[in-house]
Each structure stands twice: as structure tokens, then as C-alpha cells.
Fold this protein.
Amino acid sequence: MKHHIKDPALAAQGKKRIEWADRDMPVLSEIRRRFASDQPLAGIRIGACLHVTTETANLMRTLKAGGASVTLCASNPLSTQDDVAASLVAHYDIPTFAIKGEQTPTYYRHLNAVLDTKPQVTMDDGADLITLLHKARRAQAKTVLGSMEETTTGVIRLKALEKAGRLKIPIIAVNDAQTKHLFDNRYGTGQSTVDGIIRATDVLLAGRTVVAAGYGWCGKGFAMRARGMGANVIVTEVDPIKAIEAVMDGFRVMPMQQAVRHGDVFCTLTGDIDVLRREHFVAMKDGAIVCNSGHFDVEINLKDLAKLAKTVRRGVRQFVDEYRLKDGRKIFVIAEGRLVNLAAATGHPASVMDMSFATQALATEYVVQQQGKLSPQVHPVPQQLEEWIAVLKLKTMGVGIDTLTPKQKKYLSSWQVGT
Ligand code: ADE
């Protein structure tokens, strides 16, 4: 199998959309220009498991321009943009294994197809590729120079692997770079999650009560944007510091068991399991809409909901299922509890993915430069890469900033001056 996509006829539309996204990714374009002349990835085989979107296509083009041969599969069964997958194969000669709606066995066949290319560098969004390598293809680990991880959930899984003394490959925690999570997790998730909910349901958020479960960077972004649309936003949290932050940001904070009596729309963004479960569903209002924007489809316990339901009607709108409970109340679930922003919308806009994927591209170059010198641990992105990205992003936005005078610099490095 050289590639596996839904329909080659979608390629022309995919190409137009990839080019449209590229207009809003100036930092990545700049890296692509340099990569094309310097060839820092010459001869390197890269295997990537990412959401197959227009923005990811531009990252793949950049790695290829740098001299790498690249193979791509989906990091979620529902996030693939089939036209983009078709264009990657037809126009960019990038073998792609991804079909929106693929079942779990196909999903894993695609991951294995990427690992069959014997990649020397890998890239994950959620750590499925590296986990598969550690579980089923351990002998291959010694041929991998390093791997990049894009998301919070993936970094948590990989740190657990490291803590268990089982990590065999150096990992660069791209998610933890400031140029990634401060912008992608907050402004990207904030906008794209609201976008997914609206595309799926057409619901007016103004005047509705929206419950944001979790107040990490993604939860913060979503709560802020839902409020911006006029919703009354309730935040639920388990971390006392984050809960205080939410209160001081002006949100109502309460336990989920209380929030379910008020909420019209619920979105989970915690990274943990069973955030919405039986005891919550039984107390929800008729017509409640529930969805998830965390990486895995574990945050909403759909088995509990199915047990409570008398009937389930699939596809009452595209991506919306209706669960009718025994007492007649209805609960609507978007995208089967999978990432609502990528399943029902097109993920984060290009302008914010520009920074995330610029960080990915430079981290890849760094791993190749360091060949053999990185230990099998979870490493941060080097600070100078982040600074370079921030400076260039500001420049492309036409924003200037101040520089310290020599006197100011001296003051900041001295201890004598006080009251
Ligand atoms: N994660 C969230 N949004 C994304 C996008 N547009 N492309 C790739 N990964 C994403």
C-alpha cells in the first residue's frame, strides 16, 4: 500500500485550500525557503502522525523542501481533511495514510504503514506512533534519532513512559514551548472549539450557559471565546490554583454536579477520563449539548450515556447524535465525543498553527543536528528557537517592540540599587 486516501478526485480542492492556509503561515514559509537552499534534512526519513489538515500539509511540504522523505498518517480517526490527503499524494508526492471516519483497525494499519518506512525522525500528536513503537516494534527504537510531540496529552503520556524507565527515544516536547501552547492551545482551541460547536449545531451562544470543564490553556481559551460570544460561562476545575484564576478572570466556578443543572452546552478540555459520566447525565437539562475538545474521546463516558438512553438517533444533524433518556429528556453529543474542533470544523486557523509548526520544523532540524547526542528523555525546545520564531512572527505582523538601553540592561543585572 503506497498510500491510503478517500478519493483522489478531491485533490484539486485540497491544493487550493493548502495554498490558502500557506498565505497565513509566513514564519513556516520563511523556514521552507531556508530549508530548500540549505537542505538540513537531506536524506532523512520522517514519519509523522498528525491531524491531516491544510496546516499540516504545509509543515510536510517544509520538511520535504529540507531534503527529507516524509510519510504521514492521521493522529485521530475523525480529524482528516480528505481533500488535503488527496492533494498531498497527487501534488506533493507525500505518501499519506488517512481517511476521515476510519475505524480503529484501519487507524492502526496506517500507523504501521508509517513505521514500515523505518523513519529516523518521528512526529506525534498524542503519542500514538511512539507508543506503538514501544509496545509492538521495540527493535525499531534504536533507529530513531528523536521524536517531536505536539500536544499536552502526548507529553503527559511520554513523561509517564520516561518515569517508568521505558522511554527509548529522545523526545522534544514541542507542546511545552511558549511559541506553541500560549497561542495554539489558548487562541487556537478557543476559536476552533466555538467554531466546531456552531458548525455542528447552529446554536446561538449569546444568553446560553456554557460549561467549560478544565481551565488549562485550552479551557482558558474556550471560556474566553464563549464569553466573547455572549454566553454565561461556568468553569469546573480540580486544581485549586486554576480554579482561583478562573474566579478572578470573572467566571463562575462550581463542581460539575452543580454545573449540570445550569448548562446548555458542555465542553470537556481536561485530558482526563470520565469528566462527564452517569451522575452528570441524569441531572442535565433537556436539550443539553455535550462535546469534547481534549485529545482523546475518553472525557465523555458515552457508554454510561448509552445505558441511560432509551433510543439513540445518529446524525440528527451532521456530527450530532441524539440520546433520548427514559424520562424523555434528550442529550445531544457532537462528533462522538472526539475533538469537536477538528471533527466538526477544520481545527485551529493557519495563523496560529504557523507558530506551532515553525516550532516543529526547527525542532526537527535540531534533532537531526544533534544526531546521537540527545538522551532518551523528554527535552524542552531550545530557547533560541522560540525567540527566533517570536521575533519573526512579530515582524510578519508588522509589530515593533522596544529594546533595553545599556543603562537598563545594567540595572537588571545589578543588585546595589534599592530603596
Ligand atoms: N491541531 C489543532 N488544529 C490543528 C490544525 N489546524 N492542523 C493540525 N493540527 C491541529
